[in-house]
Amino acid sequence: MSAIREDLERHIEQGVIPPFNYAYPSRSAYRPLNGAWNIQEIWAEDLKRHPVPELNLYLHVPFCRYKCGFCNLYTVISEDMDVYDAYMDALCTQIRDHTEIIQRRRLRTIYIGGGTPSLLSLRHFTQLFETLDDIYPNWRSTVEEVAIEATPDSIVKEPDTLEGLISMGLTRANIGIQSLVPAEIREAGRGQANERVIRRAIDTIRDRQLPNLSTDLIMGFAGQTKESWRHSVDELVALAPETISTYFLTVRPDAWFSKTGAYQYMMSPDLYERYDYANAAFREAGYTQESNVRYKKLGRGGYQQKVLTFHGVPLLGLGAGARSYTSSVDYMVGSVKPSLTEVADYIDKAKNHELTPVTGFVLDDEEIIRKRLVLDTFDLDLNELNRFGYREKAHLFEPVITAAEEVGLLRRLPTDRVQLTPEGFKYRDILSWMFFSDNVINLDREYYAGLHRNNKRAQKHMGSEPLSISGLKTSTA
Questions:
Q1: CATH code where residue 183 lies
Q2: Do 430 and 466 fall into the same domain?
Q3: For a pLDDT cut of 70, what percent of the chain falls above it?
Q4: Chain centre distance of CA 301
Q5: Predicted local confidence at residue 268, as pLDDT
Q6: How high is the pLDDT of residue 251?
Q7: Packed helices 390-407 and 365-376: angle between N→C axes, nearest 10 degrees
Q8: pTM of the model
Q9: Could you name the Gene Ontology cellular component terms for this entry (predicted)?
Q10: Domain region containing 251
Q11: 140 and 234 share a domain?
């Protein structure tokens, strides 16, 4: 039996729960680029590698009313409308500075993430969409999805903003629910999003006839029980959103809960039983599984930008804290540490057309192949990877694929297409880590070790070591 198969079987038997892999390499592997690349060079190189030029557009709005204790995203607390005005001016300037990059590709999706972009006023979104109209006039004809992140309380407080967004082309809203048990919501620092507000927000979205309501639940909150989890699942099924995501709670070292050590969450193999319950409940209610974390109503729900990004369609991320994913360099134009000072720096540099890649990860052919294997084994034609030298490098990856087949996580079709089995969906993140390169593993270890040391200085006791890639993978491909 191969060492890789032994590792897979052991991790599954132990019920290891690694963080959800939604990007490769992860932000923890980014390092200063020191001026070695400019934006035009990155996207020109990317264009050479894609026979069909397409693009996902991600627009980041970092502002929130409050910071959730488990959140490690690029967010800052502000409700200052003057700051919002300056930020939207900067974002629209940055969009115009990328006109040629956008125009040379078919625009497939637009996602306005955060933060809580629904805090912006309708005039901000009018300015944003008018900018898109100017540089890509027919975007409504090519784009398959226009999405925004929102909190339940922001929907309830500003229903006219939602209505205006729908008239401009919005097709999906992601509203963070996390739980439908009041005590769990409060413990997570989401007191503003109580169950009454959540239900009112969903009613508001239904009244406006938004095509795709996307919601989420989290497994592993402090105090969550098997019964309380089942209550949240059953209640959400009754509310019938088009898209549902379920995540295992991961409190990373740069989240507030880890910095303070004040929150002890559940990280137990028993959580896979909660996965099983949700999976069965959603399927019985007519949902189909789109990924290991997401379920959708056929023909109505889903998260198209994520699906396309996993398939290798590049993503242009604009705004403070946004990441861009290409086949040449994944990068950010600013610091990974959010602050109002950093946002002000972004605004100044955007206004003066001075934004440039600051930190990132340069991808060679091997890392491009790894990226697709990490993200896209739900349904991947390995022949697509031959242009990056898969046949010559197969010895690096085939042992993992073979072990996954033997364990029952993957099936390989005669045409060299690989697909996850139902068990593969369940343990997808365990399998994904096995495709990480040693370089990315070491960079991840170094990054999180530094964060952990800083947290130890700030508190006397830390409940547990952060889970990094190096904490899971013991054999390399």
A1: 3.80.30.20
A2: yes
A3: 88
A4: 17
A5: 80
A6: 64
A7: 30
A8: 0.91
A9: cytoplasm
A10: 34-316
A11: yes
